[in-house]
Every structure is written in C-alpha cells, then in structure tokens.
Amino acid sequence: MRTHRFLKKYLLAATATAALLFSACDLDEHPTSFVGPKDYYKTRAQCLAGLNACYIPINSIYDYCFLIMTEGVTDLMYITSGTKDAQLDISPAKPLNGAKIWTQCYKGVMYCNSTIAAIERSPLSDIEEASEADRQPLLAEGMVLRSFYYWLLTCVFGDVPFYTKEVADNSVMMEIARLGRMPAKDTRDYLIDELKRYVPFMDQVRSSEVADNRMGAAMGWMMIAKLAQWNHRWDDALEALGELEKIYGDLQQYPLEDIMFRNKNTPESIFEVQRTYTAGGLAVTTNVAAICTPSHNGKGIYDGVEIPEMGTGMTTWTSMRPNSYFCDGLQTKKGSDKRKTLNMAWEYDGKPFSNVGTRPWLGPKFWCPGMQNTADFNNQKIFRYADAVLMMSECYAEQENIDESIRYLNMIKERAGLAPYTFKNIESLMEEIQKERGRELLGEFQRKFDLVRWGIWYQMTYDYTNYSTLKENMLPCHEYYPIPDKEVVYSGGALDNKAYNEYGM
Predict the structure, then answer these.
(1) Do residues 394 and 229 lie in contact, with contact meaning Cβ atoms separated by under 8 Å?
(2) CB neighbours (10 Å) of residue 253?
C-alpha cells in the first residue's frame, strides 16, 4: 500500500540523514563523522545527530508559497499572482501548497517520534555515569520540535491525525494510516502538558545563546504559549510567557533594525529558519525575497531607482505588497511609527519609486542584499520576543486585567516611537492589540493564523484585500486548507473534508 511505502521511505530517510553528524540545525555545515546503524543512538552525540534530522523538513516549509498562504491572503497584504494559493483556488482535489505542508510536517513528526523513542533507549555511553538528567534536555528538544510541527498542522488544517508512536513495524504503520482527525484542541492540550513537564529541564537562556541555533527552552516556552493561546488556556500561556520574560528581560534593549531578515539570530530571536549562501559553494536558500522586493530590470535598477546594496544578479517575481488598509491606516507613510521604513518602501535614499502609486513595495525588512537569481539567503524569522510581549498583552486582556494588558502593549509602542495607548473599553483594546500585531509582525508568517484564531479571517480578508480574484474565490471553508484527497483515500475514509464538501468541493 502507498501509505506504507511513504512511511517506510521517510523512516529510512530519517535514519540515514541522522547518521550524518551535522552541526545542529545549521544544516549547511559539513558532516564531521559517520554513525553506523549498529552503533546508532548509543551516545549523546548520536542522539544529537538524530535530532538534527528532525529539523530538515522545516527548510522545505518556509518558502514564498508559505508566505503567500500565511500573509498574502489576509487583511494586510496582497499579491496579484497567478499562483493558485494567492487566489485561494484550492479544494481537496487541488490542495496546492497544502499538500507539501502536510507531507513535510508529518515527515517531521515521524522523525521526532523515532528520535524521541531512540533517546529514551539510549545508554548515552559517552557520558560518564549518565543519568536521566542528561537525557531530559535531549527528549525536551525532540518534544519541542514535534510540538512545532503539530502547531503548524493545526494552524493550517485544523483537526488533524495525532500520534506519538515510533513507526517500528507494519502494524504501527497500518494503525497510523487509518487515523482520523483528532480535535485540534485535544492535540494542543496534550502538547502543552507534555512541554510543561520537559521544558524546565532545558538551559534557560535566549535562543541566540543556544549552541548551533537549536531549539532551546525559549522556543519551548513559546510553543506552550502559542498552543495555550489557541485553547484559551490564558493562565498556562501567561506562565510560559513569564518564563520568557525572565530570560529576555526589557524589550527596549533590542534594536528595531534587528527585525530585518538579513540580521540573523539576533538576541531578540526565539526561532529562525537558518539559510546560507556561498558563491560557487554551500547554498541553503529560499525564494521569499523574490516576491518581497521592488521590480528589478536586471541591471541594478529597482522600479526606476538604483539600489547598490541589492546588486545586479537578482531576479524578482510578482511582488507581494502591503494593501490599502495597512498603508493608509495601520502604518502610514507620514506617521511616526519607526517600523514604517522597514515594512514599507515608498522610496530609496530619497528617490521615489516609479510605480508605488498609493501602495508601496515591501520594505528592506524583507530584502536580501546581493541575492543571486531567486536564492534568498536571509534567515526566515518565525518567532521573536516582541511577539511574546504582544501575546502577554492579549492574554491579560482576555482575563480583563486591563492595566497589565496596556502595560505590555505600550512596551511595543514605545520601541516603535508611538504614543501610549489610552484605554476606552475592552473591545477597543482587543482591536488595538490585533492591529499592533499586524504592524509589528508584518510578513512573519503569522497573520492568517492570528485571524483564524480570532475567528475573523474571512470577513477581514474579504473586506480589505485589494486582489479582486481572491475576493471572488474565497469561501469561509478556506480558513483552513483541505486535507489532500489522496490522503483521504489512503486513510480508507478515516479522514474527511466536510467543511469543503458543504460547498460542493
């Protein structure tokens, strides 16, 4: 059966890949040694090699298509692209980029499950008098990684199959192949409770201080908070965010310029997808900047303006842009918000672009200086501390702790050079938090998830998109992607797409 072949294929791939001792999630490093299958997972170093394999699917997820899925089809941006994801011309029979997200996330889940089981069995023979205290941080990293994949799956698809078993034989393969949708709330509850037990065993330091850019305690606390927010477990979210605050401290110490994707693994960072490029050599790249840069004529002129730092080798595609709702209201050209020159580009070095009209290009936050063709070697910023601060503001607002909510909201505003928020009513406060998340986190792969979580994605996107084709195609069921039809068939009918079926798809 095809499902069995799929599971076997990727289980073997995980083992083979993990056998190469890469430098953590820096997958651009050269292997330092080879681990034979007979000796596999007997040492801490081999356990780390197994964990390295668990990071690999993330590289395939965070590309321009995923940016379109999470930011382009929202209330803040648009892209007049023939890409079907940009038009929401999707269905169970045409899952488009959703099919890749499904495959890569479940590949990651399988890698994590296998590695966690192996770590539990490992004698850690390279550690003298190894104890459970030596094993717990390794297990915690695997569980943080697994929670990340399930967080993505539930954000993109809603209710999804959930399992933590190692795929060790055909009977387990058959069991997993026949799993139906598990309520996303139950999945998140399981992961929250698991992470709360294990994340305290990790070194309580900022992600930038974790060797080799691995997922550490900061990412663990962030995952607890993200999952808990979806489930309205405000106390659990605030407890985790409080641990992050102990680690990261005052937001004002982190400069705004560091939010640019080109500035890698800065102290504010909680998690980034690692990219690198060496001419004629190593390349682990994406193509996000190709849809986030002013149009290039191939000779260093970008929409009528020379931009020396960008060079002449870049190829640009149909660009994503901030829409009218964003640039006329949330963050205007003439406003005092310091982030405006990072998020939006009306001009460069005092020279106005030729074709901005009333809507600018995306700004230098997203540009990749010296890019060759479409090989964007910026890191992709997934979570950073400002996000956590805004989450604290939101959670306190949900608990109607107005003073604390405003205190954290104003931390964000102060760094951005904006006047502090003055309370009117709880509804206005929640609306301002939602807007501030848009200003602060524009283009950081989260806007659609936020809108769906708040229950307002369809209406906000329909009301504010500037892309007429998207408006014509979008339906309420599009808040989540459909499970690909072939996966439904392979499940023997255990999976379904009832929300899409209601619209005749």
Answers:
(1) yes
(2) 11
* Rounded Cα–Cα distance for residues 261 and 263 (Å): 5
Angle formed at CA 22 by CA 102 and CA 282, multiple of 5 degrees: 85
- Angle made by CA atoms 295, 301, 304, in degrees to the nearest 5: 75
What percentage of the chain carries pLDDT values higher than 70?
A: 92
Nearest to 469 by CA among 90, 202, 87: 87
**All residues at 6 or more sequence positions from 205 whose CB lies less than 8 Å from its CB, including other chains:** 216, 217, 218, 247
| Angle formed by the axes of helices 385-398 and 217-230, nearest 10° | 30
So where are the chain's domains?
2-202+480-501, 275-378
Question: What is the distance between the alpha carbons of residues 116 and 51, in angstroms, rounded to a whole number?
Answer: 8
CATH class of 2-202+480-501: mainly alpha
Tokens of 125: 């023979």
Please write the tens of the pLDDT for every residue from 479-496: 999 999 999 999 999 999
Answer yes or no: are the C-beta atoms of 482 and 469 closer than 8 Å: no
* 169 CB burial (10 A radius; 0-12, 13-18, 19+): exposed
Q: How many CB atoms lie within 10 A of CB 29?
A: 18
Collapse the DSSP code of 206 into the 3-class scheme (helix H, G, I; strand E, B; otherwise coil) and give the result: coil
Q: Please give the helix or strand (H or E) that residue 306 lies within, else none.
A: strand 305-306
pTM for the model stands at: 0.93
Cβ atoms 53, 27 nearer than 8 A: no
Could you read off the pLDDT of 434-445 as tens digits, one per residue? 999 999 999 999
In this structure, are residues 140 and 220 in contact, taking their beta carbons and an 8 Å threshold?
yes
